[in-house]
Design brief:
Elements (H helix, E strand, L loop, with lengths): L2 E2 L1 H11 L3 E2 L12 E18 L7 E19 L9 E7 L6 E9 L2 E19 L9 E10 L5 E7 L2 E22 L2 E3 L7 E7 L10 E3 L6 E2 L2 E10 L2 E4 L4 H26 L4
Antiparallel strand pairs: 1-4, 2-16, 3-4, 3-10, 3-15, 4-5, 4-9, 5-7, 6-7, 6-16, 7-8, 7-13, 8-10, 9-10, 10-11, 10-12, 12-15, 13-14
């Protein structure tokens, strides 16, 4: 069941008093470039806590993850390497837990975006290919773009471990992902890198024809994943601003979250009720 940490509701109200603004990145900082590939959904149930200070500072307790749906590979765009980044596995957050929406103004190497997002829909977990679990890496909560967004319509040369160098056309934004604190089995993983990632739709959506990877993260060990098709290009968000919410907006956000949690609780109680 999803619950709100009471001590963080005050933080949400404080955030509503003014916008959140991330400082402009320096050119030497890791540019965070990823290509995202769909996989055949791989069931994996886990329960985590997520603290996202970027939008609401609300502490989400007992968030249910149910399956892995995508993998992000560090990529090279033209002559710009991604930097020392791990792979990221996209764990789906159980549907129906959240109904929070935010308007977000972002700036990245393709220009500004003004989008409406909802979620989070996924937790991105650092992973390693043919190796041990990566340590000290950042987790991301990903919010789906449900409105707004500009089609950047630019062509870039991209390469990652799954794909030879290829021209891709970058389109509209699909997900805005924030660096978050994740808690699992009493262990706290704080973000080691403050910048978020914005994922854009790209074409062509090439089918994968290589050897399927064997991945390890904190939840799985040496798991063979069935990669199917290329989906997104992810780049670092250089600056992000969440416009201030009114007091009514904060109240509505809290009520929506509490309402969603109540629905989930009732549904689970019905599912576990004795028969007879």
């Amino acid at each position: 069941m999803l619950r709100l940490n009471k001590t963080t509701l005050a933080a949400a109200a404080m955030l509503a008093a003014g916008p959140f603004l991330m400082t402009q990145a320096q050119a030497s900082i890791n540019p965070l470039i990823f290509q995202v590939w769909d996989i055949v959904p791989d069931p994996q149930s886990e329960t985590v806590d997520i603290i996202d200070h970027n939008f609401t500072s609300v502490h989400l307790l007992n968030v249910e993850l149910d399956q892995i749906e995508r993998i992000s590979n560090p990529a090279v765009k033209a002559t710009i390497p991604s930097g020392p980044n791990p792979h990221l596995l996209w764990y789906r957050i159980e549907e129906g837990l959240l109904a929070q929406q935010f308007t977000v103004n972002t700036l990245d190497q393709f220009g500004p975006q003004n989008v409406t997002v909802q979620g989070p829909k996924y937790l991105l977990v650092p992973a390693e290919k043919n190796g041990p679990e990566p340590e000290g890496q950042t987790h991301y909560a990903c919010y789906q773009v449900t409105g707004g967004g500009t089609n950047v319509n630019v062509m870039r040369v991209v390469q990652d471990q799954f794909d030879p160098t290829e021209n891709v056309t970058v389109g509209t934004p699909s997900y805005v992902c924030n660096a978050v604190t994740k808690i699992h089995l009493g262990m706290t993983h704080k973000p080691s890198y403050p910048y978020g990632i914005i994922f854009y739709n790209i074409t062509p959506d090439t089918e994968y024809a290589g050897v399927d990877p064997i991945m390890t993260d904190q939840f799985i060990t040496n798991r063979l994943l069935d990669v199917t098709m290329r989906r997104y290009l992810g780049v670092r968000i250089d600056s992000k601003r969440v416009p201030a919410m009114s007091r009514w907006g904060v109240g509505a956000m809290v009520l929506l979250t509490l309402g969603a949690a109540t629905v989930v609780l009732v549904r689970r109680q019905r599912n576990t009720a004795p028969i007879g």
